[in-house]
Amino acid sequence: MTDVAAPRDPVLDVRGLEVSFGTGRVRRAVVQGLDLRIAAGQCVAIVGESGSGKSVTARSLLGLAGADAAVRADRLDVGGTGMLRAGEREWRRLRGVGVGLVLQDALVSLDPLRTIGREIGDALRLHRRMPAAAARARVLELLELVGMPDPAGAIDRRSGELSGGMRQRALIASAIALDPPLLIADEPTTALDVGVQARVLALLAEARDRGTGILLISHDLAVVSALADRIIVLDDGLVVEEGPTTEVITSPRHPTTRALVAAVPTEVPRGHPLTLVDRSNALVSRPVTASAPREIVLEGRALTKTFTTRGTPTLAVDDVSFSLERGRTLGLVGESGSGKTTVARLMLAIAAPDSGEVLLGGSAWSSLPERERRPLRPRIGAIYQDALGSFDPRWTVERILRDALGPAATGTEVVDLLEQVRLAPDAAARHPLTLSGGQRQRVSIARALAEAPEILVCDEPVSALDTTVQARVLDLLDELQRERGLSLLFISHDLGVVRHMSDTVAVMRHGRIVEHGDAESVFTDPQHEYTRSLIADAPRLRSLG
Amino acid sequence: MSELEVRSTVTVEAAARPLPRVGTVLAGLFVVFLAVAVIWPGLIAPYGPDAIAPRDAFQPPSAAHWFGTDESGRDIYSRVIWGTATSLLIGVTATAIGLSLGLLLGAIGGLGGRALDFAVGRVNEVLFAFPGLLLALLVIVLYGPGPVTATIAVGLSTAPGYARIIQGELRGIRSSGFVEAARVLGHSPSRIIRRHILPNALAPIAVLATLGVGQAIVWASALSYLGLGAQPPAPEWGAMLSAGRTYITTAWWMTVFPGLMIVLTTIATTVLGRAITSRRGGVR
C-alpha cells in the first residue's frame, strides 16, 4: 500500500473483512480477508466476475448482507464510524448520512408509486428533519446537480415515467442528498446506453472531485478505468490483485486480471479472440476477401414500422434498408429505443413491416403468408438477450434441443450440439435455470444451430453478461461463423462489441440508419455527428485509449 | 448480482429436498381423515346418519356422543362424518364446473384474436359486477332449490374468476420469449399451443383449483344454510348449521361442530393449495 494521495482521514477503513453464508458445516465463505481503505476524494474499484463477492462486500459495508450472512472484520469504519458491533439501529442511522448507495437497477431501487421528489426528499426529512418546502427546494437543487433535464417537471414524476438514464440520475441524487462522505456504486451503469453511461460516470467523477470517497463495483474494467484511482481484483472472494489503476491495466500480474483486461472488446481487432485460453489460435485472422462481390442472403428494403400506444403513433423503424452478405457480419448499433429490436423482429418475420420488404436469399420473405414461410424458417435462426426467457421453463436443456432438432433427434445429436457450443454433455439433463448466464446463452446458440441456419440474428446476445463471459460467447460466435460460414446480423448497444464483431456497420437512431458502411471506416472516420458522439462516449481502457 | 446468484443456488438446493411444515402435515392428515369419511363413513362414524333416538335428544358432547345429539337424538359426530361426502362432492363438482367453464371462456379469449380477447374480457367484467353469491341465488331462483342446482349455481358463480386468470395466463405465455423462439424455429401454431402454451398455463390453474374447493364448500354450505341447497334430513354441513340455529342458545354443539368442519376443511385445502403453490414457485 503506497497511498500518497491519502493524507486525510479515510472515509472507509476495513481490515480483514470476511463474509460467509449458511450455517454449521455448509458454511461458505464468499469474501475472505479483504482490506479496503478509501480516502476522501478517492475512488477505489472492486472488479471481478459475477460470483466473485463484489456485491456482497458492498452490502456488508451497509449492514445489508442479509440475515443468513455472517460478517466478520478486524476493523470496519464506515464514514468515520466504527460499525463492527453496530446493531440495526446504528446501521439505519448511518445509511444515507454516512454512506450513500447507487444500485444497478434504478427501476427496482425507486418506489414506483411515489414521485422522485418524495423519494429523494424523504432522506432529507428523515435525517435532517427538514420542512417539506425546504426539502423540495433542496431536491430541485440536487436534480439540477445531477444534470436531470427539466428538474421542475421531473420532481413530480414517478420512476416508471422516467427513462433509464433519468432514473439512474434520480438515484444518484438520492444517494448524495445528505452529502455522505462515502458513496458505494454497485454496477451503476451496467444497464445503460453508452451516452448515458458516460454522463453517469462523469457525475460520479464530479462527486469524487467534490471530496466524496467512492467505492465503485463493476465487472467491466473499461468502465472502472475511467474513474478509479485504485483497483482491487476479486476472484472467488479473494483479493488476487491490487494497485493503482494504470498499473493494474497496463501490467496485470494475475491471470484473472489478465482475462478481464483481454475481455474488453473495444481495442481488439476483428477475428482475434478475446479470451486467453488458446494463445496458439490468437493469430488466426479472417481471410480478407472484401473486394469480391458477395451473395446477399438477407436484405431489408425501405422498411417502416409504426407502433400505436394509447392513440399516439411512434415510428419505430423509418425507411431502413441494408443487406447482409454471406459469411459476413452486419453490426447494428444504437441506443435503447432506437428501433434495433424491431428491425430484428422484421428480419425474423415475427412482425410485419408497414411498408417495404424483407428478402431472404433474394426471394420474398416478409410478404409470404406465414404458412408458406414456416418451412423456410429453419434458414434463419435467432438468439436473444434474455436467453432464459426464450426457453420453456418446464424443459431441460435436452428437451429444448430435441424440440428444435425435430422428432427424429437422437441423443448423440444433442451431445454434438452441446459440444459445438463448448458445453459438457452433462448439461443436457439440467434446467436452464440452474445454468449460468453464459451457459444459457450457449444453449440458446445450440438451439439456433439445431436447424443448421444460414443466418443468425443476434439481438443483444451478450448485454446481460459479464465482460469475461461476454468475451467467451463472442469468441464462440466468431468461431462458429468461420466453421459454418454463418451470416450474422449482430445487434448491440455496445459499440466496442459491435466493432469487434462486424464487417459492416449500421448506426441507428430514432428508427433511422444515420450511418452505414465498412466497420473500420465507420469507426476510424465517422461521418455522422451521432456516430462520433457514440464513439467518444464508449468506455475504453484508460491507458490504451 | 453476485450475491443474488449465491442466494439462488441456495434456494434451488433447498427446493430439492424441502421439509414440509407442521401446518402442511396437519392439513394433509385432515384431508386423509376426510377421504376416509367420504369413502367409508361407517368405519369412523359410530351411528348411522339418520338413527333417531328421541330419548337422547339434545345431549351435550360426551363419551357416547362426541359432538352431542340433535333434536331427534341423532349423533352429530356421525352425521358430520356421513355428511362429508355430500359437502365435498358439492365443493369438488362446483369447482370442476367453474373451472371447465372458466377454461372454455378463458381459452376463447386467451387464444383467439384481439376481438375475442376484448369480447370475453367485457363479458367477464359484467359477470364480475355481480357478487358471486347473488349470481348463485339467481340460478336457484330460476331452477329451484336443491343440492344439484346449488352445485351448478356455485360452479357458475366461480367461473368468471377462473376465466379471467386463465385468459391472462394464456395471453402472457403467448407473448413470452419462448413462444416467439418456437415461432422463429418454424413450429406450427397448433404445436406451440399443445407443447408450450397449454402446459404452462394449466399448471398454476391446477393449484388454483385446490384453493377453490374450500371456497366452493363454504358457498355451498351458505346456500344450504339458507335452505336453498341440500334439504334438512340430509346430513349436509350447511343444512345441519341451518337446522341447529333454532336451538343455538340451548344446544350450541348443533351449530359449532358442523361449522368447525367447514372451517377446518376450508383451511386444510387452502393450506395444501398454498404448499403446492410455493413448492411450484421454488421449482419454476
TrEMBL record, chain A:
Q: What single Pfam family name could you report for this chain, choosing any that match? A: ABC_tran
Keywords (A to Z) from UniProt: ATP-binding, Nucleotide-binding, Transport
Has keyword Aminoacyl-tRNA synthetase?
Answer: no
Q: Which GO terms describe its biological process?
A: peptide transport; transmembrane transport
Q: Key word Nucleotide-binding present in the record?
A: yes
Start and end residues of each ABC transporter domain? 14-261, 298-535
Record InterPro entries:
AAA+_ATPase (IPR003593), ABC_transp_ATP-bind (IPR050319), ABC_transporter-like_ATP-bd (IPR003439), ABC_transporter-like_CS (IPR017871), Oligopep_ABC_C (IPR013563), P-loop_NTPase (IPR027417)
GO function term, MF aspect, one:
ATP binding
What the record says about family reads: Belongs to the ABC transporter superfamily.
Q: What is this protein called?
A: ABC transporter ATP-binding protein
Species per Swiss-Prot/TrEMBL record:
Orlajensenia leifsoniae
From TrEMBL, chain B:
- InterPro entries in the record: BP-dependent_transpt_permease, MetI-like, MetI-like_sf
Lineage here is: Bacteria, Bacillati, Actinomycetota, Actinomycetes, Micrococcales
All copies of the ABC transmembrane type-1 domain together span 84-273
Membrane topology summary = Multi-pass membrane protein
Q: What is the protein's name according to its record?
A: ABC transporter permease
Q: Name one GO biological process term.
A: transmembrane transport
What are its GO cellular component terms? plasma membrane
**Coiled coil located at which positions?**
none
Q: Which UniProt keywords apply?
A: Cell membrane, Membrane, Transmembrane, Transmembrane helix, Transport
What are the subcellular locations of this protein? Cell membrane
Q: Membrane-spanning residues where? A: 21-40, 88-111, 123-142, 201-230, 250-272
Q: Which Pfam family is an annotated match for this chain, by its short name?
A: BPD_transp_1
Matching Gene3D superfamilies: MetI-like
The UniProt similarity line reads: Belongs to the binding-protein-dependent transport system permease family.
Organism from which the protein derives:
Orlajensenia leifsoniae
- The main location class comes to membrane
